[in-house]
Fold this protein.
Amino acid sequence: MSQSGGRRRPPTIHDVAREAGVSRGTVSRVLNGGHYVSPTAQEAVNAAIRRTGYVVNRHARSLITGRSDSIGFLLTEPQERFFEDPNFNVLLRGCTQALAAHDIPLLLMLAGTEDERRRITRYITAGHVDGVLLVSSHSGDPVAEQLRDAGVPLVMCGKPIGVGSKISYVAADDRDGARDMVRHLVSLGRRRVGMVTGPLDTPGGVERLAGYREVLTEAGIDLDERLVASGDYSRASGEAGAELLLERAPDMDAVFVASDLMAQGVLSTLHRAGRSVPGDVAVGGFDDSSAAVASSPELTTIRQPYDRISSEMVRVLIAQIGGDDPAAVILPTELVKRQST
Amino acid sequence: MSQSGGRRRPPTIHDVAREAGVSRGTVSRVLNGGHYVSPTAQEAVNAAIRRTGYVVNRHARSLITGRSDSIGFLLTEPQERFFEDPNFNVLLRGCTQALAAHDIPLLLMLAGTEDERRRITRYITAGHVDGVLLVSSHSGDPVAEQLRDAGVPLVMCGKPIGVGSKISYVAADDRDGARDMVRHLVSLGRRRVGMVTGPLDTPGGVERLAGYREVLTEAGIDLDERLVASGDYSRASGEAGAELLLERAPDMDAVFVASDLMAQGVLSTLHRAGRSVPGDVAVGGFDDSSAAVASSPELTTIRQPYDRISSEMVRVLIAQIGGDDPAAVILPTELVKRQST
DNA sequence: TTCTCTACTGTGAACGCTCACAGAAGCATG
DNA sequence: CATGCTTCTGTGAGCGTTCACAGTAGAGAA
């Protein structure tokens, strides 16, 4: 287990080879999958590795393979959002775990300012990571295109908007999720269904609104623009949105809110206005983040499968590093019924 | 600026040397500080670097120097706390910035579970980072000692508790900060001053309580254990603590809370109990985190200089990597008066 | 037998850099 | 003139690994 002496020079592949009575090449082959190695040699090498406490020197390996065996998790958002939004938490955790299975460490890079973005882009394009998991809801973010043009394997979380061509992404099926929620509200007999949207320069914002409109139209309910307020995913914008809706459409009997955090804001506005939930107004959220169960009443919401999103992001990225073409993955959402509807 | 061809083999130190008409050695010397290099050669090399777009290959460098030129930011807390506590935000940001000045990337490592801690410890001790910035409030965390014993340069945030010997740390002067706050409360004429402490297995928890007791004693006010409730820095524990205090000491006219997040909980309990702040009860927090100004009324609090804490952590760590002995740095706090007192 | 094919193994040559050393040039000192 | 010192420069070796290649042994086919 632990080394005997105090901080000696760590064992090299050479030491292992000598110990096992084989050549460097054979040890290397064992290390890299064990193809074309006899069971006898395999066994001897593994035993020698255990005895010497050998750990592969990643620098030497990277020098020759040209790969760094590490992956960057790049966030081109203001850092505040990273900490405010509970979704990043699960996403980061999921990616860390998925990469741990490949024994790949994750390099978290925060690039909230223009200056940091330049520095980080340079760092990445210099080949210091093999690929990038990019989280950036904003559209018009040039980083994605820069990295793609530099030939860096890249997977985005959420569908990129307004980007010329082929960039991999993994996203939940926003439109379908929105449809499920609004269908649910309509099935409860609600007819004056409002919506607080996400930012409309993001794919999530656009798609969820589209799903909302589709279902109402299908149900034969006329669209009423007074029932739509726009938000930015923050709790405060949820409060403001709900105030606007109550003012313009006091007869509203349900509201679909494009994020749980905003839905919290909606709940507190409704509470102040003396409306009961779900009695007077049914409220549906989106995300199934920790905010959904921290609210009172607990939110009916659309679960985004962040665990699967993160594992898919990792899978697609690793495939792309291995030479595969960019791919898009859309994952299904799920309606989670709780007390707010 | 940008490379001409499409993703050619990147230029090596050899290409730069040829371009500049000097030897590899001279280029290397320029890259590493430029000692023993003539101004002429210096200039030629720099021009060649610019022309070729050369970037040093860190793997090759690391292979020979044995250093990795990267630093780990290790958090051995449950990941939830990382996202809940706004202090981590500023700490991480500060460290990232301080390291950026040295052009050192920061490897964020989250090790919330026992299993992850093992994996990460192995990773670190294998020499993949040059040093570690460790954030872990819990005492009895074996990771710090393990890393120290393995000879890994290490700086902790906050004074380690119960650890045998020499580990570097940077901390705010908790006791002095607590003294300032309680002195402030007493100077307002308050005599029944309560406290909600932090976890008493952390240095911050212990020291702030000690400061509280010292000042009351100095002011000739008898200590009353009914006025002390213990918390765990979470908002919920602030609410519970305040309820306990109100029950045991209804005549309490001030309360010192060991974190702003807990103070938020205290405020909401006081509000529910119909006590006005600061009229009936003055409330003092600790941290000056974003929670302090997000409260209503805004919190009088003790500012922890997280910007300086982070830059000092980086400074001490880099010095230690350079061979210096472990060091302890205690930074002064500052009383910030707002509306809650 | 002889040839071919497969499974396995060892060896030298890289990868791109730093480091130690040798040596050159310039200048002052004995 | 030799000697020493300082400043600068080039060269070979080597860091620990992978990769391409050559080579061996054994099995099966001709």
Summary: Residues 1-7 of chain A have pLDDT under 50 and may be disordered. Residues 176 and 211 of chain A are 6 Å apart (CA to CA). The two ends of chain A are 57 Å apart (CA to CA).
